[in-house]
Amino acid sequence: MDLAFAMAEARQAAKLSQAELVRRIGTSQAMVARWETGKAAPTTTSLRRFAEATGARLRIEFAFGRN
After folding, report:
1. Which end of the chain has fewer surrounding CB within 10 Å, N or C?
2. What is the pLDDT of residues 4-59, one digit of tens each?
3. Cα–Cα distance list, 35 to 3, 8, 53 (Å)
C-alpha cells in the first residue's frame, strides 16, 4: 500500500490528472487507478515511465534490519 500511496502523491504533486498521466506514459486510466489503489502492482518499466512523467526520482531498495 505504501507504493500505491506514493504513486498517487507523486501524481498529485506533479499536478497531473490520471488522464494526463495516461497520455504521458501510454497506459490505461483503469491501470493507473489500480496502481493508486494498490489493486495492481506496476512493472519496473511502468515505474520508470511514471517517475519520468511526474518528475520524480525512482529509487527501489530493500531494507534489512529492525526499521
Report:
1. C
2. 999 999 999 999 999 999 999 999 999 999 999 999 999 999 999 999 999 999 99
3. 8, 8, 15
CA distances from 19 to 24, 33, 46, 49 (A): 9, 10, 16, 15
Q: What is the distance between the alpha carbons of residues 6 and 51, in angstroms, rounded to a whole number?
A: 11
CA angle 59, 64, 67 (to 5 degrees): 90
| Rounded Cα distance, 66 and 53, in Å | 34
CB 9 within 8 A of CB 52: no
